[in-house]
């Protein structure tokens, strides 16, 4: 992150973060954009949203009145609140976006939100999602990723025709597809970085704290 | 379930269930098989495991001694504890298996365990996973699924070449692939059942409580 970069947190309406690293990211953010009902969770935590995006079906009349000048109305029924929030951040001055609160409750929301991250990365490759257990990032082509020895790493192909080669992981992949979500789980970084070469498309990486 | 059916719960080492429906399933089970460290969580809840499967790296010496005649040693490094537990259940007299405790902590474990359910269903189509928010089942070919009006339904294709047609869902699918995990989320049942026709392979269904 450069000194002049503007960091946004996009707070989804899942489980409010509790891990110190996720909370540190929330504290340091220049702007916090809340998906609808997540604004109440942020207020309960003791912070104020800079913007609230959605159709406001999940916020109280008090919040509506108090933050009337921070509401970004987006009634589009064809997309969900997380995508509305992401589109809003993209239209602002965000140089990086971290999604928080996107997992930990309904598992179908968790799966959907994680896969949306891969879509968002086509517009903003540096986007990441921090949970209470680790960080999801998205990589394409070839990339060296910072790590530490023994860090737990999992890889998820959304496109199972993709071939992956790894360097610096305990269980190396050699031009191999990951046709099932479990096949790339429970790997481990051997040193302070690892490298992935990906034939096409993008790959979801989960790095435990 | 017929009167003579033998119901097994396979308890994974994720978040211990808290939803009444998941706990009712645990209470009614004829046999409870714990994946390694899940045995301690079950004991803390006030119940005893019938079997503990794994390499026992996550259980205390006291539990090892107390349940020495219920330990099923499986040191295979090529597979995880959930799969070890599933294989054990299959080799017993289980006529149905419900997986509990497989989600709610590390998201990579959640994703891996959900996709393993689809693998297990090729051996035992009736297998299901109950979470604190709903039930995952796996269907193939054509199937009518019991529901209730307004029930939240999400569909996940592990094979994105699969074509799906739905009847009785609010947002109908017409011979459509689900190439991304979010594309089949947030649907809704219109009546007391819905039907899915699947071109090939199997499909994960999540039904909220």
Automatic annotation (TrEMBL), chains A, B:
Q: Which InterPro entries match?
A: Thi_PPkinase, Thi_PPkinase-like_C, TPK, TPK_catalytic, TPK_catalytic_sf
Annotated coiled-coil positions are: none
Kindly give the SUPFAM superfamilies that the UniProt entry links to this protein. Answer: Thiamin pyrophosphokinase, catalytic domain (SSF63999)
What EC number(s) does the entry state? 2.7.6.2
Q: What is this protein called?
A: Thiamine diphosphokinase
Q: What are the alphabetically sorted keywords of the record? A: ATP-binding, Kinase, Nucleotide-binding, Transferase
| Every Thiamin pyrophosphokinase-like substrate-binding domain range | 134-206
- Gene Ontology biological process terms in this record: thiamine diphosphate biosynthetic process; thiamine metabolic process
Q: Which residues does the UniProt record annotate as the domain Thiamin pyrophosphokinase catalytic?
A: 26-120
* Annotated organism of origin: Microbacter margulisiae
- What molecular function terms (GO) are annotated for this protein? ATP binding; kinase activity; thiamine binding; thiamine diphosphokinase activity
Enzyme class comes to transferase
């Amino acid at each position: 992150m450069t000194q002049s970069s503007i960091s946004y947190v996009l707070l989804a309406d899942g489980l409010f973060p509790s891990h110190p690293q996720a909370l540190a990211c929330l504290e340091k953010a220049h702007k916090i954009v809340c998906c609808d009902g997540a604004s109440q969770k942020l207020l309960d935590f003791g912070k104020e949203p800079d913007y609230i995006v959605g159709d406001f079906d999940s916020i109280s009349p008090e919040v509506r009145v108090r933050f009337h000048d921070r509401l970004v109305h987006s009634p589009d029924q064809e997309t969900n609140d997380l995508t509305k929030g992401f589109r809003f951040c993209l239209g602002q001055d965000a140089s990086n976006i971290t999604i928080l609160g996107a997992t930990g409750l309904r598992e179908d929301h968790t799966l959907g939100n994680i896969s949306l991250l891969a879509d968002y990365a086509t517009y903003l490759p540096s986007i990441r999602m921090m949970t209470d257990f680790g960080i999801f990032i998205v990589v394409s082509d070839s990339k060296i990723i910072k790590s530490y020895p023994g860090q737990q790493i999992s890889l998820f192909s959304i496109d199972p025709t993709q071939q992956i080669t790894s360097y610096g992981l305990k269980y190396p992949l050699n031009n191999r597809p990951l046709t099932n979500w479990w096949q790339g789980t429970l790997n481990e970084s051997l040193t302070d970085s690892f490298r992935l070469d990906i034939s096409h498309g993008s790959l979801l990486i989960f790095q435990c704290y």
